Write a sequence for this structure.
């Protein structure tokens, strides 16, 4: 990550304060790599984050302008910012699964509905991990966490045939993909497509949290075991096995197919303003 | 100057536009709905944006985003929506974002009565978010015309102090029709005492811990200044820092930038019949102050030595008006007594402080005069179902 971090990241935030063995850095790197491969510069991007591990570990890492919302609200701030920033500025959000699919879901759905030009990377460590490890809305059924000591049995957004990306597809998102942290260049390619789309893009990226998820569900902080747990239960779309929880690849792509949120609003305002000036 | 017979909502819309507001995010709620509607009609005509949030929490966050992009932004609601602002209020206070928030009070708690004026958020506007360690500016107009000037002033103060300014109105002020004059050019704005402050872009440090300086441009993103802002305690550059000493500096600024520059707005009050040391000072704000003013005038004609003090600047609370040892009566649109507690505190033990509240209705001139008489004669206030309480 050396050349990437030199170009794009702030020295003050390297190394990150994440636990050793945390997979968040792999997701973070994939995003920065995608930015690099698209030829974007520091000033082309405003970076927003949530709270939690996903948010706090990535906040203030980007050399350019950045902000962090309170829990679940960054999607609404980002939409207001989208309306008032020039269209060529990209807004990238790195957030947690609890933030996006729990407390912030209403704002996220409305971001999809309005097709706001945002690229949202949901860093899914399978629950609420910075608060010690409680189950969330994508936690696999049966998982032991601090708030599911008997195994998680609530319905969630990834159980019983549900898929959170399906919810967002029907809400109007124009680019959706799913990856796991170990997907490497495949994830980078999806993120690039997401950033390129002038509309709402979301990339769901599952990553290993050995400290709080692994230690409860697997009974060990062993990083390799936690990585295997995720890797063995993921497979590229079309190559799913019986135990596949995360089918990876592009889930939905209608990039540039419908007017973007701010573009639409500005076009209408301009029409009204001109009529009023006559 | 153009004259209209129009609502307070109309006056507020025109005032906001004169102040440079070009971003309004709203969510329908009586009695602030018409303000959102008026903004949706007027803002696009002047190149501004009206946007509807999925709820009030989103609406104020949208305003934050708009302000971060360099716009002067505003939202408006009533009690049930105001409560959903708690989260973005905190963010905006901590990140020092200039915003204007209007709360048109109705009768609570919860949905209560939608079509009557209330004053149940006197304290909530002071403490609109959790955590403490901040000071807030709250202004309360008592007419449609004054709502316009208070809105203009709020945008001015929001920029200079880098903070959300809250306007506490009520249903009669926003919904009532009144004679309104709207200035048509800068000269006329000056004539009406309207001050404006332009949005500038911050190029220096993002935060100014330990200082009470004002007139610092707010954070604006998208100019590649490397600005950072978040909900965490910030360093000067905006990095999140988990350190008590850093938080002391941050909190000091959030409190004292306002407290140490009160002279910018503590002239916002009205005094009637206060020159001859009245034996009873009637304290109020917003709609009830209009009945109070009439009642005090009448009472004077009847020979009662009463005076009226109307607060426009509610927070920080203007203690300076209560230095005189005398009798005070707080007249409010609630039964639990909110303003009266601050009057008691500011007036101290040597003064006598009374409360007269109403809940969903307004006091009448006759009721008020009767109360003045009783207080002046030292008689108890309790009578009939009319809830008057001794404090
Ligand atoms: C309104 C609110 N509720 C709860 C919290 C406490 N909280 C802090 S981090 C966090 C976990 C968030 O989970 P997720 O978004 O998945 O992030 P992770 O820590 O797992 O990366 C929670 C619940 C908070 N900060 N704000
Ligand atoms: S708690 Fe888990 S997700 Fe958070 S930094 Fe540690 S390993 Fe990473
Ligand atoms: Mg999580």
């Amino acid at each position: 990550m050396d050349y990437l971090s030199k170009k794009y990241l702030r020295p003050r935030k390297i190394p990150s304060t994440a636990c050793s063995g945390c997979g968040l850095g792999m997701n973070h790197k994939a995003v920065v790599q995608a930015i690099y491969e698209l030829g974007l510069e520091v000033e082309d991007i405003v970076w927003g984050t949530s709270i939690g591990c996903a948010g706090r570990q990535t906040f203030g890492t980007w050399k350019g302008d950045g902000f962090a919302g309170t829990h679940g609200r960054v999607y609404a701030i980002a939409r207001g910012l989208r309306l008032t920033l020039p269209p060529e500025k990209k807004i990238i959000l790195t957030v947690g699964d609890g933030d996006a699919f729990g407390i912030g879901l209403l704002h996220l759905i409305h971001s999809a509905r309005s097709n706001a030009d945002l690229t949202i990377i949901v860093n899914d460590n399978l629950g609420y991990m910075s608060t010690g490890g409680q189950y969330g809305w994508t936690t696999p059924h049966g998982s032991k966490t601090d708030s599911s000591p008997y195994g998680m049995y609530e319905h969630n957004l990834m159980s019983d045939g549900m898929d959170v990306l399906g919810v967002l597809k029907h809400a109007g998102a124009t680019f959706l993909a799913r990856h796991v942290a170990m997907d490497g260049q495949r994830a980078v390619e999806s993120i690039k497509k997401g950033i390129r789309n002038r509309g709402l893009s979301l990339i769901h990226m599952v990553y290993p949290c050995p400290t709080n998820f692994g230690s409860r569900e697997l009974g060990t902080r062993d990083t390799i075991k936690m990585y295997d747990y995720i890797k063995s239960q993921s497979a590229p779309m079309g190559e799913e096995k019986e135990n596949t929880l995360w089918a990876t690849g592009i889930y939905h792509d209608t990039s540039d197919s419908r007017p973007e949120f701010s573009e639409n609003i500005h076009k209408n305002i301009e029409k009204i303003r001109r009529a009023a000036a006559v | 100057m153009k004259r209209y017979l129009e609502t307070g909502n109309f006056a507020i819309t025109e005032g906001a536009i004169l102040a440079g507001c070009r971003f309004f995010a709203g969510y329908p709620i009586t009695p602030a709905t018409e303000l959102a509607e008026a903004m949706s009609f007027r803002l696009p005509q002047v190149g501004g944006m009206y946007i509807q949030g999925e709820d009030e929490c989103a609406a104020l966050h949208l305003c934050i985003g708009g302000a971060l992009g360099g716009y002067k932004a505003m939202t408006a609601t009533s009690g049930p929506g105001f409560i959903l602002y708690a989260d973005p209020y905190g963010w905006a206070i901590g990140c020092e974002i200039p915003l204007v928030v209007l709360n048109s009070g109705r009768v609570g708690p919860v949905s209560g009565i939608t079509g009557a004026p209330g004053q149940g958020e006197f304290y909530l506007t002071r403490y609109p978010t959790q955590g403490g360690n901040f000071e807030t500016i709250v202004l309360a107009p008592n007419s449609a015309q004054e709502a316009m000037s208070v809105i203009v002033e709020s945008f001015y103060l929001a920029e200079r102090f880098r903070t959300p300014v809250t306007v506490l109105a009520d249903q009669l002020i926003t919904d009532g029709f009144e004679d309104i004059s709207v200035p048509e050019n800068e000269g006329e704005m000056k004539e009406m005492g309207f001050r404006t402050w332009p949005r500038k872009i911050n190029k220096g440090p993002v935060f100014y811990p330990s200082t009470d300086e004002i007139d610092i441009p707010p954070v604006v993103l998208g100019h590649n200044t490397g600005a950072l802002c978040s909900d965490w305690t910030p360093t000067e550059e905006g990095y999140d820092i988990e350190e008590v000493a850093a938080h002391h500096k941050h909190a000091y600024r959030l409190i004292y930038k306002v407290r140490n520059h009160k002279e910018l707005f503590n002239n916002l009050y009205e005094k009637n019949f206060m020159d001859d040391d009245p034996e009873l000072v009637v304290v109020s704000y917003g709609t009830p102050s209009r009945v109070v003013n009439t009642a005090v005038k009448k009472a004077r004609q009847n020979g009662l030595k009463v005076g009226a003090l109307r607060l426009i600047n509610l927070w920080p609370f203007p203690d300076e008006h209560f230095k005189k040892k005398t009798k005070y009566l707080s007249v409010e649109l609630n039964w639990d007594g909110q303003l009266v507690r601050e009057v008691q505190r500011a007036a101290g033990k040597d003064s006598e402080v009374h409360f007269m509240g109403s809940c969903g209705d307004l006091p009448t001139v006759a009721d008020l005069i009767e109360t003045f008489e009783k207080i002046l004669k030292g008689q108890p206030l309790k009578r009939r179902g009319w809830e008057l309480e001794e404090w």
About this structure: Residues 215 and 221 of chain A are 5 Å apart (CA to CA). Chain A has one domain: 22-277. The first strand of chain A starts at residue 45 and ends at 49. The pocket of thiamine diphosphate (ligand 1) is lined by residues A 50-54, 71, 96-99, 125, 128-131, 136 (CB under 6 Å).
